């Protein structure tokens, strides 16, 4: 049966001052909320964050950090087995108990005392409880002991509550007590048989982790895997997952899910041609905003909806309200949320001081990178590192583009990295401006390649200038030289 939730160790908040008014009130003390408050305090404002769970939020305890801790042990063993010498030394299986113990340490054992100490050192007040708006600039907090406190925002309120896993309306699924990413990343044991519904990043990462930890994994995807990335990324990840023992169904949708009396789960697939039996089912089909209990109706907004913002992260029609991170649906990634948070904190402070705000493209108070320069890494097997637009996405926007592809395994650094290295990289180039607008690399340990591409895209560096950025030899960064040479040869042909 599904595991009970882990106990959370929420450190008691320091005593708040009697004056219940701050320049900035932040609802949600995850990485995004922390950064909004920190930037505003650095700008001379007072700030309080309100948190109902753990300070540090989803990324620290149930997403980025614990999930990558699980995947890293799997990928490290795979890397050792990819070379003569180390292959002979790596003769055993992963110590699952040790992997889970390291994951627990990475997640601070679900204890937020370290994060609370950081808030205190940064001069940010903390209030524990459930927050809701009660009109403009007025926040009501129901504390853990049931009392209500009213906090007034002199300048701004920032909603940084993040998102939850969306549970699709598949008959029987909700009653089957499915795992979401939270239960998967905090699992106290490795399920013998795990079925995953959803072929996006979370589904593919958890398939990588649990297959490596010894589960028999079945991955069910309505379309191709990683459908928002380049098609070759889907192909290479699908092939590797199958090679590592994962059963992958693409173009398949569950018709019903049943938790049987013995605790096992049966999943029927459309067409009646197949069914999947598992001990646990993980749902990874998307996210929904945590905005349903925030009192949005008191200010004319729809509860449970995504919040639309401008490039200074201000909610449309409300000059005092900001929505930062997942809740604005611009880019559901921790690093992008923190980028938005830095911009939002700066702009809130600037407006509070009566200063002029520069929210123009790449301006001091703008979050425009969310539009065309969003980097991401899928820590799958193999990894997928990408930033900017795909070829299909750019063409769909009517841009005249050219594409340069190269096999990463042909680069000296990759051939040294692992025997039989397989991978692929792509540049998407805006033909009119002759600048890179998209980059994707698929292969083991390609994550660190993405930042160079991010700089090239954000900086709008001309291809002619990039030719002079010489990669060190023999590293995988030589892929840049090969992609540019391929582009040059294609233009001359």
Automatic annotation (TrEMBL):
Keywords: FAD, Flavoprotein, NAD, Nucleotide-binding, Oxidoreductase. GO terms for biological process: 2-oxoglutarate metabolic process. Residues 374-480 form the Pyridine nucleotide-disulphide oxidoreductase dimerisation domain. Residues 22-335 form the FAD/NAD(P)-binding domain. It is an enzyme of class 1 (oxidoreductase). FAD binds at residues 68, 161-163, 326. Binds 1 FAD per subunit. This is Dihydrolipoamide dehydrogenase. It comes from Microcella alkalica. Its cofactor is FAD. Its EC number is 1.8.1.4. It comes from the Bacteria. Belongs to the class-I pyridine nucleotide-disulfide oxidoreductase family. InterPro entries: Class-I_Pyr_Nuc-Dis_Oxidored (IPR050151), FAD/NAD-bd_sf (IPR036188), FAD/NAD-binding_dom (IPR023753), FAD/NAD-linked_Rdtase_dimer_sf (IPR016156), Pyr_nuc-diS_OxRdtase (IPR001100), Pyr_nucl-diS_OxRdtase_dimer (IPR004099). Disulfide bonds join 59-64. NAD(+) binds at residues 198-205, 286. GO terms for molecular function: dihydrolipoyl dehydrogenase (NADH) activity; flavin adenine dinucleotide binding. Transmembrane segments: none annotated.
């Amino acid at each position: 049966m599904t595991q009970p939730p882990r106990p959370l160790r929420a450190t008691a908040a320091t005593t708040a001052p009697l004056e219940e008014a701050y320049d900035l009130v932040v609802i949600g003390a995850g990485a995004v909320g922390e950064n909004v408050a920190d930037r505003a305090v650095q700008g001379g404002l007072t700030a309080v964050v309100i948190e109902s769970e753990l300070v540090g939020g989803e990324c620290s305890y149930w997403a980025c950090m614990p999930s990558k801790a699980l995947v890293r042990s799997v990928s490290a063993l795979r890397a050792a087995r990819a070379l003569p010498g180390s292959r002979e030394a790596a003769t055993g299986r992963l110590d699952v108990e040790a992997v889970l113990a390291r994951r627990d340490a990475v997640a601070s054992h679900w204890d937020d005392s370290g994060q609370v100490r950081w808030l205190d050192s940064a001069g940010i007040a903390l209030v524990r409880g459930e927050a809701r708006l009660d009109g403009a600039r007025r926040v009501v907090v129901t504390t853990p002991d049931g009392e209500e406190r009213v906090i007034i925002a002199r300048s701004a309120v920032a909603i940084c509550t993040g998102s939850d896993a969306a549970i699709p309306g598949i008959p029987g699924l909700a009653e089957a007590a499915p795992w979401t990413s939270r239960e998967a990343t905090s699992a106290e044991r490795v399920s013998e048989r795990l079925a995953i519904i959803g072929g996006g990043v979370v589904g593919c990462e958890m398939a990588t982790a649990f297959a490596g930890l010894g589960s028999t994994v079945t991955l069910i995807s309505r379309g191709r895997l990683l459908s928002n990335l380049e098609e070759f990324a889907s192909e290479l990840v699908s092939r590797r997952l199958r090679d590592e023992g994962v059963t992958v169904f693409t173009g398949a949708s569950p018709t019903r899910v049943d938790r049987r009396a013995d605790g096992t789960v049966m999943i029927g697939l459309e067409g009646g041609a197949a069914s999947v039996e598992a001990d646990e089912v993980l749902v990874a089909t998307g996210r929904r905003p945590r905005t349903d209990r925030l009192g949005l109706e008191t200010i004319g907004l729809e509860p449970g909806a995504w919040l639309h913002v401008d490039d200074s992260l201000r909610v449309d029609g409300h000059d005092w309200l900001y929505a930062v991170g997942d809740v604005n649906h611009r880019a559901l990634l921790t690093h992008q949320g923190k980028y938005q948070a830095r911009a939002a904190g700066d702009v809130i402070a600037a407006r509070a001081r009566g200063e002029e705000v520069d929210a123009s493209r790449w301006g001091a108070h703008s979050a425009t990178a969310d539009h065309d320069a969003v980097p991401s890494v899928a820590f799958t097997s193999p990894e997928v590192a990408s930033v900017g637009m795909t070829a299909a996405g750019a063409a769909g926007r009517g841009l005249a583009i050219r594409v340069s592809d190269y096999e990463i395994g042909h680069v000296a650094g990759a051939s040294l990295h692992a025997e039989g290295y397989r991978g692929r990289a792509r540049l998407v180039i805006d033909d009119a401006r002759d600048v890179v607008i998209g980059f994707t690399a698929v292969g083991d340990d390609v994550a660190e390649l993405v930042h160079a591409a991010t700089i090239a895209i954000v900086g709008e560096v001309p291809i002619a200038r990039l030719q002079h950025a010489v990669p060190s030899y023999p590293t995988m960064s030589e892929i840049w030289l090969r992609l540019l040479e391929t582009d040059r040869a294609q233009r001359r042909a």
